[in-house]
Amino acid sequence: MVSESMSLSYLRIIWVLVRRDYALQYAGSFLGITWMLLQNLTLIFIYAFVFLFSNLRNPGTQADYSGYVFSGLLFWIPLQELLTRGTSIITDNRQLIKRSSLGMDIFLWVPYFQYLIHFFATAIPIVILLQYYSSVNWVGLIVAFVWMGFIGLYVMLLINYLSRLNIIMKDISPLVRLLSQILFWTLPILYYPNGILGTINSFHPFNIPLDIFRSLILESYTSPFVFYSFIPFLLVFFMIWYFSRNRFHKVVLDQL
Q1: Where does the pLDDT of residue 27 fall: very low under 50, low under 70, confident under 90, or very high at 90 and above?
Q2: Most confident of 92-106, 124-138, 140-154
Q3: How many Cβ atoms sit within 10 Å of the Cβ of residue 41?
Q4: Helices (H) and strands (E) in the chain, counts
Q5: Whole-angstrom Cα distance, residue 6 to residue 3?
Q6: What does the pLDDT average to over 202-226?
């Protein structure tokens, strides 16, 4: 009972921090947090408009390629936000961490909860479009939401390292933004994994998670990849998390 009460208190604190972070990010903005949804949807529609009419689709139907693109962008854009926001979250809250007894780790959960909110808010209109352009597996869609929660935890293993490295190196945000662009274009989101691109994709840490996500929500999608090849990436991310927790922690506290 005590443990349950502590867990609820912990979640309430995280939610307060999430609301505080949103308030700071969108302070003075006319539309407030609505900008987040508009930005995500605008980016998705720009990519979709360009690539749906650029003849990059396979010898399949337009509907198949539409579902392929929309599902890939729905997977990637919230993850990209988690990666970039998670890197800077501790640095941005440096003064609050120093003044409070909350500790540093609780702040890392702020971008994770924001990621879940962003994904859910973006998914609603995109799923409607997917149903119009393609065939949505409604049972698999529920599992896909749970799967994205696990993928967020998978990325959090890396964020534990990047957020601490951001303090030690002063600011690696430009490098992470560049990395996110490389990750985006080496992931089969807007193109099919054929030839040399397929070889590159197989070495991507988010390739199998994306493939599973597509397999869950699209009825007509058949995966070209072997799912167990995801295991080495998961082990590497766990090693990165372990290193950041045991090697970086004291150094980071000294530099806060």
Answers
A1: low
A2: 140-154
A3: 17
A4: 11, 0
A5: 5
A6: 87
N-term to C-term CA, the chain: 35
Model-level pTM? 0.86
How many CB atoms sit inside 10 A of residue 175's CB? 14
Q: Return the SS3 of 221.
A: coil
Please check whether residue 48 is in contact with residue 69, taking contact to mean a CB–CB distance below 8 angstroms. yes
Q: With beta carbons less than 8 A apart as the criterion, state whether 210 and 76 touch.
A: yes
Using the 8-state DSSP alphabet, how is residue 245 labeled?
Answer: I
Q: Where are the beta strands (DSSP E) in the chain?
A: none
How far apart, in whole angstroms, are the C-alpha atoms of residue 143 and residue 217? 9
Q: What are the tokens at 209?
A: 């998670």
Question: Is 232 in contact with 207 (CB distance < 8 Å)?
Answer: no
Provide the pLDDT confidence category of residue 248 given band limits of 50, 70 and 90: low
* Reported confidence tier of residue 63, pLDDT bands at 50, 70, 90: low
CB-neighbour burial class of residue 39 (10 A; exposed 0-12, middle 13-18, buried 19+) = middle
How far is residue 161's CA from residue 154's CA, in Å, rounded to a whole number? 12
Instruction: Retrieve residue 103's tokens.
Output: 């500790």
Q: How far is CA 90 from CA 21, 64, 153, 162, 215, in A?
A: 12, 41, 17, 10, 35
Tokens matching residue 25: 């990010």
Q: Using CA atoms, how far apart are residues 17 and 113, in angstroms rounded to an integer?
A: 10
